[in-house]
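User: For a reading group we're discussing how well predicted structures match intuition. Take Threonine synthase-like 1. Before you show the prediction, I'll give you the sequence so everyone sees exactly what went in.
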Amino acid sequence: MFHVVQYRHLRLITQNSLSSMSLKFMLSRPVAFAQIWKSWFSSHSLIGNKNIILMGPPGAGKTTVGRIVGQKLDCPVIDIDDDVLETTWNMSVSEKLQDVGNEQFLEEEGKALLKFSASGSVISLTGSNPMHSAGMQHMKENGIVVYLDVPTTVIMSRLKSMKVDRIVGQSPGISLKDILQFRKQFYKRWYDIRVLCGGDIAAEVVAEKVLNAVKRYQNSELETFISTRTSRSGRSMEKDSSKYFSDVVTEGLAPDGGLFVPERGLPKFTAGEWQSLIEATYIERAQVILERCIHPADIPASKLAEIIGTAYGENFTCSKIAPVRHLAGNQFLLELFHGPTASFKDFALQMVPHIFAYCIPRSCNYLVLVATSGDTGSAVLDGFSRLHDTDKQRIAVINFFPEDGVSPIQKSQMIGCQKENAWSVGVKSDFDFCQTAIKQIFTNSDYTGFLTVEYGTALAAANSINWARLLPQIVYHASAYLDLVHQDIIPFGSPVDVCIPTGNFGNILAALYAKMMGIPIRKCICASNENNVLTDFIRTGVYDLRGRKLIPTFSPAVDILKSSNLERYLHLIANEDGQLVTQLYNQLENQGHFQLRKDLLEKLQQVSGWCSEKDCLAAIHSVYSTTGYILDTHTAVAKVVADRLQDRTCPIIISSTAHYSKFAPAILRALRIAEINQNPLSQLHLLSSYSPLPPVHWSLLETLKKGNEDHQVCAADMSMLMSHIETLIQNHFM
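Assistant: Thanks. Here is the predicted 3D structure of Threonine synthase-like 1, as structure tokens, for the group to look at:
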């Protein structure tokens, strides 16, 4: 073993050792910037103990970036190729490779890493170092591994300009592109931090991104959450009780009844960073976006990758996960129904249970409470039932749904999705009662305290009031735009509109968040059915529930009068004025209405419309007649509104939020089929006989076969709901 301070090729980077381009850049920048970095790192544990380890494919710029980072930090820089391998072997790397061959070269390279030790340095790995497990494990023990993630097409272009046509591990008959793709699995295994590097990004810019990423990695306390109802003066008083991602996932609802939001907002991506994801798969895009939204102190990159792979790897019937399909003219459908329960809720609820299981403490049992207007129920039951057996023993879920307020297939699906840790309870009321009841239970400290003391059980929420539910939805809105670019429909930077059937405001809020993060969305169009309280609010600024009764429609997921996630958006446009948000929602609770100030109404910046039941069915019939494609009832609502409101100057992406199979009676009626069998299975078989696009969602069949099982039903009474909760806790946890 040898230490870096004894290594004869150790060098401190000075301006003389930089390339002329780097030197010119450094001289043009204020000295103050470098001093700020040096000051920050000198007082930090990084330089005293840890190394910054740069990893990536050949051509990623590790050596050049490493030198610039070292100069900014005034610390040693080590290039594994030049300073370790060639010195150890007394020959060039290319000579060694030719001498021993690919397989033995990787082993010899790994042995050299195992004999190497350093601290407080910037280390640039070779492109093949990550392929040796023991060597990388040794390096990682005293370092923060930074992955310079450069698109494969960019790497190939750089290697071509460098006249490199073969790299380590590339056997005869294997293309350069294939070996670069093969290596990605090793890079993804080892990194702590990812830095996106586009095509023409300068090394100096990459170096600054590395330093910013390391700073973020070392400062998890910067990424805290606040309640939408926390006043500005209250923030400073609550610093000692800061909430982090793990906390808000576990708690769901803020103690003051508000919703959690990130105190410093969402991360911003540059245009180049988004463009680097154009060629990426859906899973790769999800990984990159969520890494920036979830601090690695809460969920490390490797664990997040495992969760995303589990959620989307085999549970979706389409390999593209969320494909974008051209409908007609400038209209495109974002198909969000390829998950196991056939609705957009699967995108979050195949992930959230695993995130929840990772974040919660092991010392307590957790009961997740859910209220649903239809699709959430089966999605959350399916998601939590897929947990590992050990997690199922300490995590259970109860789904409350309006007994007579969902479609027959949705109801059968929720009953059929019940498992040993997942139950459904029908409530003799509407969705708004179910959602309000859950909020009241969460804010009843006497009751939640009783459950903790008496049964060792804490409550948590999986509705879209939980922040973790929103993040996966941001991904598919961003991915849809990138798909249009990838398909050469638009160049990157050209705007699109999105039209989203909207009930609880979560899906459209995720689109607004994607826009804030840098996706060029021009207009977010809110589409409502006859329960058009949101449409009226966006138009007038008056949220008025007085005398308003819920109207059951063909699109039950939009049958909502109190849209929970609207609170997050109001908090955003009110410049995070929690006191104002509290006043508005107290007035809504006590008087049944509130009105926005004129300046806030102008900030809503949304376009909205609503659709009648007649127009909904007519749209389904019209689209099927002209294209052979069947829209579900919610997508039809959005289609009608999009037809009315789009100006046809840019593409419009319509969120297709559920598969039509879930609403077979309404679809059959829209297609003007006279005799409709009441049996859900018979309805699906009848639809299938029409050879529709997309095909009938056959994964529903097995679930529906179980849908005739018994389920519990309770009255619209808080004490009855609490009684059901206690009984289920006793049966599962005691």
